[in-house]
Specification:
mainly alpha; single chain; about 475 residues; globular
Length: about 475
C-alpha cells in the first residue's frame, strides 16, 4: 500500500546527498519520526531487509564452495556406497566451478532481459534440486552431476544478488550492504564446517538445501530494482519500488531523475564488443585482476581442502574443529569489513589485506618445509603455526578480498553494462577457482605443499602493487558518479 506524502515531509535530494535532508522530528511522532530519522541517516529498513534476502544467495554460494571440505574426508571414513580416490576428490572440490562458469555467463542475460529479481528466482529452485541430487548420490558420477547443478546455480545467483543489492541501496549504505553479502558468503562456509562436523556427507547436503529453499520463499516479497525498471521504461513501477525501499515519507523524485539522466546518457544495453572500448575495458580489467588475486591468493584452497590441510599439519586439535575456528574468524572479518569499508575505503583494506596474507602464506609454507626437514621439531615446537597463520590469513581475506571484488564489479560498471560485466567477472572467477582447486594437489606433488603456499604469497605481493596502481577508490560515491570515471 502506498502512503501519500504531505509537503511537510523531508525529501531525499539524491542518492549521494542523503545527509542534507531537512529532518524535522518535531513535525511528526512515533513511527513517522523513526522513519524520518532513518531516511535522514541514509538508512531504510525495507532496503536493508531486501538486501538481507539477497544475501542468502551469497550464503548459498559459500556453502557450495566449502561443501567438499568436510564431506570428502567423511566419504572415506564411514560405510558408504562408494569411495573416492585423490583424483576424484579434486574433481568433487572443483567441478562446481565449471558449472558456475556457465551459470555466470547466463546470469547477465537473465538479469538484463528478465530483471534482477526474476534472475534470482530462476536460480534458487534448481539450486535446491541440485542439493537433493548430491544427497541421494549412489555413485561418484551422480555426485558430480549434483555438484555441477549447484555450481551452475551459484553462478546464476552470485552476480544477480550483488547487482540487486547495489541497485536498491542508498549510496551512503551501499558499501555496508554489499559487505553484508560477503558476511553471508563466509557465514555459508561456517555453516558447512559446523554441520559437517555433526553430519555425514549426504545429510550435510540436505541441510545445505535449506538456505536456497528459504531464499525462494522470501525473494517473492521484495521489489524489482528501480534502476532496472527505469531501464525498461517502466517509470510508475520504478517509483513504487523506490518508494517501498526508501519509505513512504521520502520524496523520491530527485533520485528517480538522477537515475533517469544516467540511463539517458548511457543509452541502451551494452553490447559485448563495447567491452573492448576504453570506458568499459578499463574497469573490466580491474575487475578481472581483483578476481584473479582473490582466487590465486590461496583462500579457495582452504575452502575446499581445509580439513585435509589441517590433517596434514598434524595439530593435536581435531581438524574439523580447526575448520570451525577458521570459519568463525572469517565471519568476524567480514563483520569488521562491513563497519569499516565505507570509512576506511576499498584501497586501504585491499593493500593491508594483501600484505597480511602474503606474510601468512609465507609462514605456513615455512612450517610445511620444516615439517619435511625436521618433522619432530615442527610437530613439537611449531604445531600451532598453521592454525594461527591460516586464521589470520582468513581474517585478512574476509576483510577485503572476499567482499570488494564483487562490490567493485557492481560499482565501476555502468547500469547498461552491469549484467554482462557481472557475467564476465563471474565466469572468470569460476575459471580461476577451478584451476586453483583442481590443480592444487598436482602442483603440491611437483613443488611440495610449501611451494604451493609460497606461490600464493607471491600473488598477494603482486596484489599490493596492482591495487596501488590500478584500483580507484569508490567510497561514498554514487553509482551515477562512478559511471563517469572511465569516460
Amino acid at each position: 500500500m502506498v502512503v501519500a506524502m504531505d509537503s511537510g515531509v523531508p525529501t531525499l535530494p539524491g542518492e549521494g546527498d542523503l545527509r542534507n535532508t531537512n529532518f524535522k522530528p518535531e513535525s511528526v511522532s512515533g513511527v513517522q519520526a523513526f522513519e524520518q530519522q532513518s531516511v535522514h541517516m541514509g538508512f531504510t529498513t525495507k532496503a536493508f531487509m531486501a538486501s538481507l534476502v539477497a544475501c542468502l544467495g551469497a550464503m548459498s554460494a559459500g556453502i557450495v564452495m566449502t561443501y567438499a571440505s568436510p564431506a570428502v574426508p567423511n566419504m572415506n571414513s564411514q560405510p558408504n556406497p562408494f569411495r573416492v580416490n585423490k583424483e576424484q576428490q579434486s574433481w568433487i572440490g572443483s567441478i562446481n566451478s565449471l558449472g558456475a562458469l556457465f551459470g555466470a555467463l547466463l546470469s547477465g542475460f537473465l538479469m538484463d532481459f528478465f530483471g534482477r529479481k526474476l534472475g534470482i528466482m530462476l536460480a534458487v529452485v534448481p539450486f535446491v534440486c541440485g542439493w537433493i541430487v548430491v544427497a541421494g548420490s549412489p555413485s561418484v558420477a551422480v555426485l558430480y552431476v549434483g555438484r555441477l547443478i549447484t555450481g551452475f546455480c551459484k553462478g546464476l545467483l552470485v552476480g544477480a544478488s550483488h547487482v540487486y543489492i547495489a541497485e536498491i541501496s542508498p549510496a551512503s549504505q551501499r558499501g555496508m550492504m554489499l559487505t553484508a553479502a560477503s558476511v553471508a558468503n563466509v557465514l555459508g562456509n561456517f555453516y558447512v564446517y559446523c554441520f559437517g562436523f555433526l553430519l555425514p556427507w549426504n545429510w550435510l547436503a540436505v541441510v545445505c538445501a535449506v538456505v536456497p529453499a528459504t531464499m525462494a520463499c522470501l525473494i517473492a516479497f521484495t521489489p524489482e530494482t528501480p534502476r532496472y525498471l527505469l531501464l525498461k521504461e517502466r517509470r510508475f513501477e520504478a517509483e513504487e519500488s523506490l518508494r517501498w525501499l526508501r519509505g513512504p515519507l521520502c520524496n523520491i523524485d530527485a533520485e528517480i531523475e538522477e537515475i533517469e539522466n544516467s540511463i539517458r546518457e548511457l543509452g541502451d544495453r551494452a553490447k559485448l564488443k563495447e567491452f573492448f572500448e576504453p570506458h568499459l575495458l578499463k574497469p573490466l580489467l580491474i575487475i578481472l585482476g581483483l578476481f584473479t588475486i582473490q582466487e590465486f591468493s590461496g583462500n579457495s584452497i582452504f575452502r575446499v581442502y581445509t580439513v585435509s590441510i589441517f590433517q596434514s599439519a598434524g595439530n593435536s586439535m581435531n581438524a574439523n574443529v580447526q575448520s570451525i575456528v577458521l570459519g568463525a574468524v572469517g565471519v568476524l572479518g567480514t563483520l569488521v569489513s562491513s563497519v569499516t569499508i565505507d570509512r576506511v575505503g576499498r584501497r586501504v583494506l585491499l593493500v593491508a589485506s594483501s600484505v597480511s596474507m602474503a606474510l601468512c602464506m609465507t609462514a605456513t609454507g615455512v612450517y610445511f618445509k620444516l615439517k619435511e626437514v625436521d618433522p619432530s621439531y615442527a610437530n613439537e615446537r611449531l604445531s600451532w603455526l598453521p592454525l594461527v597463520s591460516l586464521v589470520v590469513n582468513n581474517f585478512s581475506f574476509a576483510v577485503a578480498y572476499d567482499p570488494i571484488p564483487w562490490m567493485i564489479t557492481s560499482e565501476l560498471l555502468p547500469t547498461r553494462a552491469r549484467g554482462i560485466g557481472n557475467s564476465i567477472g563471474g565466469a572468470w572467477q569460476g575459471i580461476c577457482f577451478f584451476v586453483v582447486t583442481k590443480f592444487f594437489q598436482d602442483l603440491s606433488d611437483v613443488i611440495h605443499i610449501f611451494g604451493s603456499f609460497w606461490v600464493c604469497a607471491s600473488v598477494c605481493v603482486v596484489g599490493v602493487f596492482f591495487v596501488l596502481l590500478a584500483v580507484p577508490e569508490t567510497k561514498r560515491r554514487t553509482l551515477e558518479n562512478l559511471e563517469n570515471v572511465f569516460k
